[in-house]
Automatic annotation (TrEMBL):
Protein name, per record: Calcineurin-like phosphoesterase domain-containing protein
PANTHER family: ACID PHOSPHATASE TYPE 7 (PTHR45867:SF3), PURPLE ACID PHOSPHATASE (PTHR45867)
Keyword annotations: Signal
Signal peptide annotation: 1-17
Taxonomic classification: Bacteria, Pseudomonadati, Acidobacteriota, Holophagae, Holophagales
Organism annotation: Geothrix limicola
Domain Calcineurin-like phosphoesterase: 122-339
Coiled-coil residue spans: none
């Protein structure tokens, strides 16, 4: 009896020690829906030999998946660790699939994965997220209660410098804890913001490229090429090695979810979307997506917004005519720490200056759209959803409409909040909710 108890205790302790970061789901390099879907499952463990395996429950019982692979990250201050990846395959679209992870033979983790839905679905979106604040935690709980099928973070994934150590402190413990088991159940997608890029002082900065697994179908930039995240040799070598093929290509990509095409752009200052290579990719991506019911562009830096903070970060505005040409419905951004919604807009740039200076142009505003009785938009609605955790900007602007640009229709800067998108082929409902689940704004778009 005593031996059995000790054995069980040993197994329990082994299970507790197995993970540095428990398993979390990623879309992986699977941009387009398929008859049989896949998802990447990742987790972090110590840098020691161990036999890991993953099983998915099918109609005839548990099915062993291909042996997990790993990349090693040895960038201080964290101890060298392994970033494991297993691809869950042969998944039925829209299904909730049980999976489990074994460590040296013993099952140490079990959960269920929400597979990409082929039609109607709920996507939750927020940005400027893992700051370690109480508000970040409260919002994560509200996101869990909203039951998303997937989550998209519009950049500034992790504060303050996108470091591996910061992911360990206040990203995974919030979005993938036993109390808020989001990432183990639904895939998180995201785009790097200005806080997620390689900072010279930190060898573990830019952990995005090593810790996330997203489509690699972007412009195909090579390390050191114009438009790619610039790294410092001798500082970021370990991070680049751990990222493998994801660096620097994973910064921009596209994917489809349900009937929605998402074009995800790295809007950081080093990426000039007016340059021929990036512009050609953007055009080709949107052109190929004309069969989608909806087109969404997601990026960190907004094109149009009303906050006084970051008011001159307008360098993404020149892409507006391309987005209009190819029928983009919605642009989702972060960077500015509040919620904002514009009227449907068209914009012709007339004066493009250096980065950080205003981009002037002519606006055409759809004044008729109200999202309730008039739901067909003539132009693009620009959303800022950067109230995901970091400190809010200028809360007073919420109640002072005279401080808003004339085309801003909603601005909430005194509450943290997130966006819920309920989308099918004909309707797109957008709601902005606070940590208590209260609705701060709501519109409907129809086709
Ligand atoms: Fe930002």
């Amino acid at each position: 009896m005593r031996t059995l108890v000790l054995l069980l205790l040993a197994l329990f302790l082994q299970a507790q020690d197995a993970f540095l970061v428990k398993p979390y789901l990623q879309l992986g390099d699977a941009p387009r829906p398929a008859a049989l879907e896949r998802l990447d499952l990742m987790w972090h463990a110590t840098d020691a030999e161990a036999a890991w395996s993953v099983e998915v429950r099918g109609s005839k019982g548990w099915v062993a998946q291909a042996i997990p692979t790993y990349r090693r990250l040895d960038a201080p201050p964290l101890a060298a660790h392994r970033i494991y990846r297993a691809t869950l395959k042969q998944l039925s679209p829209g299904a909730v699939v049980p999976y489990r992870v074994r460590f040296n033979g013993a099952v140490v983790f079990e959960s269920e994965a929400q597979v990409r839905r082929p039609g109607a679905h709920r996507m939750v979106v927020f940005g400027d997220a893992a700051s370690g604040s109480h508000e970040q935690i409260a919002l994560a709980k509200a996101v869990l209660a909203a039951k998303p099928d997937a989550v998209f973070i519009t950049g500034d994934l992790v504060y303050g410098r996108g470091r591996a150590a910061e992911y360990r402190d206040h990203f995974f413990p919030v979005y993938n804890s036993d109390e808020t088991p989001l990432m183990r159940h639904v895939p998180f997608l995201g785009v790097p913001g200005n806080h997620d890029v390689p900072f010279k002082a930190w060898p573990d900065a830019s952990a995005y490229f090593a810790y996330w697994s997203q489509p690699l179908n972007g412009p195909g930039l090579r390390p050191g090429e114009a438009g790619a995240a610039p790294v410092s040799a001798g500082v970021h070598d370990a991070m680049v090695a751990a990222a493998g093929p994801a660096f620097p290509r994973m910064a921009s990509f596209s994917f489809d979810y349900g009937k929605v095409h998402w074009t995800v752009l790295d809007s950081n200052v080093y990426a000039d979307w007016e340059s021929p290579k990036l512009k050609a990719w953007l055009e080709a991506d949107l052109k190929a997506a004309q069969g989608a019911a909806w087109r969404i562009v997601a990026l960190h830096h907004p094109l149009f917004q009303s906050a006084l903070s970051h008011s001159e970060d307008q360098w993404m505005r020149p892409i507006s005519p391309i987005l209009e040409k190819y029928g983009v419905d919605l642009v989702l951004a972060g960077h500015v720490h509040n919620y904002q919604r514009t009227a449907p807009l068209r914009f012709k740039p007339t004066q493009v200056g250096p980065r950080g200076r205003p981009v002037k142009g002519d606006f055409t505003v759809d004044e008729a759209f109200d999202g309730r009785t008039v739901t067909r938009a003539k132009g693009i609605i620009h959303i800022v959803t950067g109230a995901g955790g970091a400190e809010l900007y200028d809360p007073w602007q919420t109640d002072v409409k005279t401080s808003w640009q004339p085309w801003t229709r909603a601005l909430v800067s005194d509450k943290h909040s997130f966006t819920v998108l309920d989308v099918d082929a004909k309707t797109l409902k957008l709601r902005q909710l606070d940590a208590e689940g209260r609705e701060l704004d709501a519109i409907m778009l129809t086709k």
